[in-house]
Specification:
With 335 residues, the protein is of the alpha/beta class. It contains eleven helices and twelve strands. The longest helix has 18 residues.
Length: 335
């Protein structure tokens, strides 16, 4: 199946007092129509910066390299289900990103209370997301589509809720309002940046089920960013594990979770909470500062399988012999 998003060698550099650092370092992946890709890693692994770079929301002064094509098939003259041509999100101008953001690629943020405007009614904020891209639409039509987006997001009593302010909604309803706003202009790619982290367990389950339903009904392509491997198992088709800005393992979610091939992925699985007996085992140490990365493998100082080679060589993201297509890991133990 042709991808709707094709990212190649994406690198993001940020200026610091000690020089330039790379929170996202040579990341490549594809995302097909209706597919869900989970991006996993600890805080500081580069997950959120990757999503912000794709949205054109990276910090001032950031430098980006590589490519990130929306609708890449259009570059070769292939027909798409929509009339949009191919767009490189990395090379796009500010005006081009403004047109694409929300219309073709949208994002749900981790904490809706800080992402929503506290002095605008929920309905007005969702209507604004439509009006930006379709200014010639009538107020009645925009209102109808905003309420429809709220219904898609499973918000009850949409007329009443649309007149309320963010502080009048529960955490779960605020997140649903964010989902409605992201869907309002009809994007093909949806980025969800830890959308369940601030919610209680029952609401987390509802949001995950809602995103899965929307992905199926609207043929959405979903990038789901999280540190929770249990959530990834529920919602993702494939998983990409990041550490210190680089992809260290990727593949079909069931294969990666059952048979991890990178020591970092193994560590994340051992550290995950579980219902069965046995203690969770934390990974020793912490993610290294990006301006103090070791010469070889960034995970080497924390790795139980550490060898001398790990200190001198940075492994490639190599295909795992005998595994399915797209199964790769960045480790000297993978040959």
């Amino acid at each position: 199946m042709a991808p709707v998003l094709d990212v190649r060698g994406l690198t993001v550099e940020l200026p610091t007092r000690k020089g330039w650092i790379r929170p996202v370092n040579d990341v490549s992946f594809t995302l097909a129509a209706g597919e869900s890709l989970g991006i996993v890693g600890e805080s500081g692994s580069g997950k959120t910066m990757l999503s912000l770079a794709l949205m054109g929301l990276d910090p001032p002064g950031a430098r980006r390299e590589g490519e990130a094509w929306l609708n890449p098939a259009a570059r070769n003259g292939e027909r798409s289900s929509r009339s949009d041509g191919a767009h490189d999100l990395i090379a796009a101008s500010a005006a081009e990103m403004h047109a694409a953001r929300g219309r073709e690629i949208a994002m749900i943020f981790q904490e809706p209370m800080t992402a929503l405007n506290p002095v605008m009614r929920i309905g007005a904020q969702i209507e604004e997301a439509i009006r930006v891209h379709e200014p010639t639409r009538s107020r009645t039509e925009i209102r109808r589509r905003a309420l429809q987006a709220m219904e898609h997001a499973a918000i009850p009593e949409v007329e009443r809720r649309s007149r309320q302010y963010p502080h009048q909604l529960s955490g779960g309803l605020r997140q649903r309002a964010m989902i409605a706003m992201a869907l309002a202009a009809g994007p093909r790619v949806l980025i969800a940046d830890e959308p369940t982290t601030a919610l209680d367990v029952t609401v987390q389950k509802q949001i995950i089920e809602l995103l899965g339903k929307l992905r199926s009904e609207l043929r959405l392509s979903l990038l789901f960013i999280t540190h929770d491997l249990g959530v990834v198992a529920q919602i993702a088709d494939r998983v990409m594990v990041m550490y210190a800005g680089r992809v260290v393992e990727e593949g079909p979610v069931a294969e990666v979770l059952r048979h991890p091939r990178h020591p970092y992925t193994e560590g994340l699985l051992r550290a995950a909470p579980r219902l069965t007996r046995g203690k969770s085992v934390a990974i020793p140490g912490s993610v290294p500062a990006l301006d103090e990365l070791p010469v070889g493998c960034a995970f080497a100082p924390r790795c139980a399988h550490h060898t001398a080679e790990c200190d001198t060589d940075l492994p490639d993201l190599a295909r795992i012999a005998g595994a399915s297509e797209g199964r790769r890991a960045r480790c000297v133990l993978v040959r």
